[in-house]
Amino acid sequence: MRPPLRKKRAIVIFTTMAAMIAAAAIGIPVFADTNDSGDRDCQVSEILVNECRPWLGARASDYPQADDSVTEQVAHHEERIGKPLDIVHTFAAEGQLPLRTKEERALANREDTYLYQNWKPAAKWKDAAGGDAEMDEHIDAAADNIAEVAPKKIFLTIHHEPENDVSSDSACDTKEDAAAGTAADYRDMWHNVRERFDAKGIDNVVWVMDYMNYEAWDCLVPKLYPGDEYVDWVMFNAYGDGNKADFAENVGRFYDLLNGLSSEEMDLKSKPWGIVEWGMSDSTQEQARDYYEQAATAVEKNQFPKLSSYMIFDSPGTHEDGGLRVGYDDKGKADAEEQKRYTEFANNPVFEG
């Protein structure tokens, strides 16, 4: 069972349900619970794969209707979609520790919810690759933080979207001002972090490799991969914009790349995959609304059967006017219809069970 909703959330969800009943009475379509999840015994694996369905998750921030804390922003997101999230996506920058706040720890411990933490141990990958006593202490402190919520597990990525931070590569063009290090430095960092966690007996981490899904840097994908024994999941982005407004094409491009790269030495097909961030910006509002409908169609058709999670990026990110937020256009104007389209996606029966 999920924990009882706080009073404020319960009121909103009750109001939403009442509105849905009223809408149905005047002929407006509403989602109904058409799945048979009550008859299924849906187990969650050791690496947090739901055997019955994909997870629904979100990064939620910068909505003025709620306080800045991650718990309040998540609560507001859940109020808007009328249901709790399976996964809550948070970030820890270099110098910070994962699960450093009471809000993150509360979400990590919330029943039927998993925390997904992006963590950057160091700005320079080689600094966290072993041999630096102070940095190794920092890594050990991160492990201790995560151990405090055991046996509850969390998803953990070490420096998400590393492609745009690779400073040099002999065979791939890299971002001009990137300065984190080489792909080998990245792998060494991952290995050191994972091995230090393992040495301390930390067993409540599910390790996720997180890619950008940016065609210009596809050549870096295999070079950055830490190795099958170090990775539990592979996830990637599925952002759209005015020039890339087809959800299935955006997902399918990288999905096919992973399939093609999979080999005995890099057995990507043996891993569960997921969408770690997605959304729509720099587009017309018609395109943005349609993107969520396309996503719903892809999920309903099980077009990408290896995808075991869909996590929306409901946050401005690098967009100053907040266009990536589900409920706003690129100029920061609220758009109830866009929110409605995403709410319908989130309430698709595929995500029940």
Automatic annotation (TrEMBL):
Keyword Nuclease in annotation: no
Single annotated GO MF: hydrolase activity, hydrolyzing O-glycosyl compounds
Database matches in Gene3D superfamilies: Glycosidases
Keywords, ordered alphabetically: Glycosidase, Hydrolase, Signal
Limits of the GH26 domain: 8-322
Signal peptide annotation: 1-24
Active site residues according to the UniProt entry: 161, 277
SUPFAM superfamilies reported in the protein's UniProt record: (Trans)glycosidases
Protein family per UniProt: Belongs to the glycosyl hydrolase 26 family.
Name of the featured protein: GH26 domain-containing protein
